[in-house]
């Protein structure tokens, strides 16, 4: 692989994290006029359909066993996103929520330990106390009167860790675009069913809310996953894993400018510690970036 293609891929992935950060803004604006789970359900179904149209040729000759496994991952994704959108709906600070939700990358090896008996690497044991300390600063910033939305975001982090473990264990020989389409579609159906059971659907939606819905669906979902798929095909997974840690950073920055959010000193320290924990958990990947390789 040429160095130019490698650099191009990393720039694409950085742009993907920017789109993901904007996705938090788009979603927060959309659920101001739509029931949260209804919004996420329709968003994922539409985004999945768009990806299906784009990658139609990759859907030929699918293995039914692989489809069932991808559907199971989509089911977990649906539950994960249920917690995420509840946190988004009830939370008052997007930046804090983004850092808590991003703890999933730290929790992946721990979940693997309980699910498959895998031994977490030393980097995870070093990252955990830093992450817990960061959560402590966030949760206790206002004494014991913390936001329950933080619990929802943490549950979404656990769900993401469970989802990533299933993906790593399932041997699904299908194009990543097909896998993403199935996951989004199944997750969308789960969320839409939950919405029909628990939410009152709106009789109408304003043009402004519809615009935010389309932005979150076409830009923060369909376009984001297309670029992510392309970018990750051109660069080592270790590089991509480190770059994707930028999402909560962009979310916090955008929330400051868009919603005039601010963080106390304790919250800033908590987010910083969580970010450091994420980097520590990725230390093997970070170290590999600086080693001589065929990509350099």
Count of helical regions: 13
Task: Count the E strands.
Answer: 0
Task: Return the average pLDDT rounded to an integer.
Answer: 87
Output the structural class: mainly alpha
Number of structural units classed as domains: 1
Model description:
- Keywords: Cell membrane, Membrane, Transmembrane, Transmembrane helix.
- Residues 10-138, 149-281 form the EamA domain.
- This is EamA domain-containing membrane protein RarD.
- With 296 residues, the protein is mainly alpha-helical.
- Helix 3 (64-90) packs antiparallel against helix 7 and helix 10 (237-243) packs across helix 13 (283-289).
- 46% of the residues are buried.
- The chain has one domain.
- The radius of gyration is 19 Å and the shape is globular.
- The mean pLDDT is 87.
- It is built from 13 helices and no strands.
Which short descriptors sum up this protein?
13 helices; transmembrane helix; 296 residues; 77% helix; globular; cell membrane; single chain; transmembrane
In a few lines, what is going on in this structure?
The protein is mainly alpha-helical and 296 residues long.
């Amino acid at each position: 692989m040429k160095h130019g293609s490698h650099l191009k891929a990393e720039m694409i992935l950085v742009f993907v994290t920017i789109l993901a950060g904007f996705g938090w803004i788009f979603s927060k604006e959309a659920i101001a006029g739509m029931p949260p789970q209804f919004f996420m359900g329709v968003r994922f179904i539409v985004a999945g359909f768009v990806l299906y149209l784009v990658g139609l040729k990759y859907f030929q000759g699918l293995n039914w066993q692989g489809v069932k496994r991808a559907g199971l991952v989509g089911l977990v994704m649906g539950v994960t996103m249920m917690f995420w959108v509840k946190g988004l709906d009830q939370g008052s600070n997007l930046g804090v929520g983004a850092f808590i939700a991003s703890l999933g990358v730290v929790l992946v090896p721990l979940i693997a330990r309980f699910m498959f008996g895998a031994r977490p690497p030393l980097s995870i044991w070093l990252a955990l106390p830093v992450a817990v300390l960061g959560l402590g600063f966030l949760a206790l910033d206002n004494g014991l009167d913390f936001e329950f939305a933080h619990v929802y975001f943490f549950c979404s982090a656990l769900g993401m860790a469970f989802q990533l473990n299933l993906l790593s264990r399932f041997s699904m020989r299908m194009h990543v675009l097909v896998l993403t389409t199935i996951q989004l579609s199944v997750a969308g159906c789960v969320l839409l069913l939950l919405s029909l059971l628990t939410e009152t659907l709106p009789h109408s939606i304003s043009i402004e809310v519809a615009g935010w819905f389309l932005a979150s669906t076409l830009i923060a979902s369909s376009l984001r996953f297309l670029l992510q798929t392309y970018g990750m095909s051109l660069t080592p997974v270790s590089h991509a894993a480190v770059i994707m840690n930028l999402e909560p950073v962009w979310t916090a920055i955008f929330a400051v400018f868009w919603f005039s959010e601010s963080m106390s000193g304790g919250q800033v320290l908590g987010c910083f510690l969580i970010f450091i924990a994420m980097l520590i958990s990725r230390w093997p990947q970070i170290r590999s970036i600086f080693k001589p390789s065929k990509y350099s």
